[in-house]
Every structure is written in structure tokens, then in C-alpha cells.
Amino acid sequence: MTITKEDASQALGEIEGARGRLREAITYSYAWPYLVLWGLAWMVGDVGTEIAPRLGGWIWPATSTVFTAASIAYAFAQRRRSPYATGGRRDWRPMATAGTIMLFLVILTFAIEPVDAKRDHSVFGLFFGFAYIVQGLWRGWRLVVLGALLTALTLFAFYALPLWGGYLTFMGVAGGGALVLGGLWLRKL
User: Fold this and answer.
1) Cα–Cα distance, 154 to 89 (Å, whole number)
2) DSSP assignment, residue 83?
3) pLDDT tens digits, residue range 101-112?
4) Which of 20, 129, 169, 172 has an alpha carbon within 20 to 30 A of 149's alpha carbon?
5) Beta carbons of 179 and 33 less than 8 angstroms apart
6) Is there a contact between 46 and 175 (Cβ–Cβ < 8 Å)?
7) pLDDT tens across 52-97, in order?
8) pTM for this structure?
9) Separation CA 102–CA 113 (nearest Å)
10) What DSSP letter does each residue of 8-75 carry, written as one string?
11) Contact of 183 with 35, CB cutoff 8 Å
């Protein structure tokens, strides 16, 4: 049996397509727990601040600390089952990237000095919305959808709702909920 040039080209194209789908599925399998975890953090932080505004200055720092520790612990557990680990070593760049982004956000909060809480909060919603869009351009279209949804929800809440009595609860439930549902969506793949 002889294989024509066209048959070989088609077979290579199918292999490349399967490879891309596999890479996307692997990305989603590693990303979904973090989306769920940080969606829950967002809910706790925003709804907790709305319910107990006097503790608002402590709720987000405490929430961030607890969920960051949980993320790091999960990352180390996840590391053991990574198909990218070689000889017990794993590429350090993803963790360094995440750390750099978090450091940037911490510095940003000090550099922009709170103009008002709603604007500051919206910067984070927009930042992460666009971060998911950019990741999606490289890793899979579902992350683009999640990023666009998060960006749209943030813009809606910013322009339509007052900070106290609407915005924080909406962002906690809708923004955090979008991440949780998005993570569960990725998990099903």
C-alpha cells in the first residue's frame, strides 16, 4: 500500500490537531482547581466585606493569605502528577510567573493609592479578566470566554451598582461564581 503526499499531509494535520486538543485538555485539568479555589476566595472576600464592613480591612488580607497557602499546597501536590516533570524536576517558570503577577498586583495596590474602593476593586476584576483572555489565546478558547465574562461582569457592576448595597455582593457572587462555574466547566472536559 502506498501513501500519497495528500494522505500523509492529512494524517499529519490530524495528529497535530489531536496534539493541540490534548494540550488544551491538560491545561484545563491543571487550571480548574485554581479557578474554583479563587472563585470561592472572591466570594468570601467580597460578601464578607459587604456583611461586615468594619472588618473589611482584614477580610481580604486574611482571605488572600489562606487561599494563597491553599494554592501553593495544591501546586506542590499537583507537581507530583505532572506529565511535564522530568527527573523529579519541574519547570519553574509557571510558578515564577504566578508569583511575579501577584507581586505586581500588590505593588499596584500601593502605587495607585486608593482613590475609591470601587475603582480599586474593579482594577482587579478587569486585570484577571484580561489575564484569562490572554491565557486563553495561548491555552484554549474556554479561558477566553471566562475572561470576557469576568470583564463584562466587572464593567456592569462598576457602572450600574453602588459599592455598598450591591457592588461587592454582586462581584462576590457573580465574579467569584463565574470562576467557580468556569472551573467546573473546565473540569468536565
Assistant:
1) 39
2) T
3) 778 877 877 777
4) 20
5) no
6) yes
7) 888 877 888 888 889 888 888 887 777 766 655 444 556 667 667 7
8) 0.70
9) 17
10) HHHHHHHHHHHHHHHHHHHHHHHHHHHHHHHHHHHHHHHHHHHH-GGGHHHHHHHHHHHHHHHHHHHH
11) yes
Cell numbers for 161, please give them. 451598582
90, 84 in Cβ contact below 8 A?
A: yes
SS3 of residue 87 by DSSP = coil
Cell numbers that stand for 80 in this block: 507530583
Instruction: Check: CB of residue 129 under 8 Å from CB of residue 151.
Output: yes
Count Cβ atoms below 10 Å from residue 136 Cβ, excluding itself.
19
How does pLDDT run across 144-155, given as a tens digit for each residue? Answer: 888 899 999 999
Mean pLDDT, residues 131-158 taken together? 86
